[in-house]
Amino acid sequence: MASSLYTVITLLWTLQDGGTLHVYNDRLIKIAFANEEINAICKTNVMYKPDYTKFILSYYRIDSESKEITVMQSLQSVEIPPGRENKSETLNYPFKIKPSMHSSVSGTYYCKALWILKNQVRRGNGTFILFREKGYTEPPLTMWMCLITITIILTVASIMGTVLLFWKREWRQIKKCPAQRPAPPHTSGSSEPPEPSYVELGPREPDVYFAINKSTGSPLHKKVPAVKVSQQKMQEITDVYENNTADLYENI
């Protein structure tokens, strides 16, 4: 009789203080990459009573030796809304677990709530997380900045090198082919244009003519520089040549 009464009292005390406290995991199975951040949600059924306003919410796993390995832990505080005293409500508490926290170990992860004042613990049903091989890792921003800087430097250097190459080529051409001096203007009073260069290739006097002129003391025995002559001068030279030839025959 006494034991039955004790059981009833214990049951009533449990229903009064902690019978409505529950903790749930958001999923049963989850797949993630080893280098990814895990988003977990712990659903906790809390009671709006002064003794249940503060509790410690933990996210942990069980290792091969059945030991609890705490991954993340936080202290939660609940404010009692007006008119909600002695009532319960389910609240969601998200967790963002970094790779350095979960160590990419596949296994079952649990949510756990510990009400400090009542020293009561509730656990969730657990979520099995399977970690796969590492996926693509986004390079850091500093690496992108270094690549952009190197690309800009190489582009500027290429442009400057091309400009310098063209400048050197033009400078060499200028040194090899200096500017020619302008031809002196035609100072003759006549309006006749200068004779073409092929006039210089006109017929020359025979050697006999030069020998006779040399013996008679003609000033034509001296060698004179070749100059450009006009057609009229050429005709005069021809007439002189014919007269001298006639004199030569008469003398003979």
In short:
The chain is of the alpha+beta class and 252 residues long. Helices cover 34% and strands 27% of the residues.
Rg over C-alpha atoms, rounded to the nearest angstrom: 58 Å
CATH superfamily of the largest domain: Immunoglobulins
Profile the largest sheet: 6 strands, mixed
Quote the distance from N terminus to C terminus: 187 Å
Low-confidence stretches: 5-19, 220-229
Question: Which structural class do you get from the secondary structure elements?
Answer: alpha+beta
Reading the helices and strands in chain order gives: HEEEEEEHEEEHHH
Number of helices: 5
CATH topology of the largest domain: Immunoglobulin-like
Average pLDDT, rounded to a whole number, is: 74
Helix content: 25-40%
> Which CATH architecture of the largest domain would you pick?
Sandwich
Choose one word for the global shape: rod-shaped
What proportion strand?
Answer: 25-35%
Could you say how many structural domains there are in total?
3
Task: List its traits.
Immunoglobulin-like; six-stranded mixed β-sheet; 9 strands; signal; transmembrane signaling receptor activity; NFAM1 Ig-like domain-containing protein; transmembrane helix
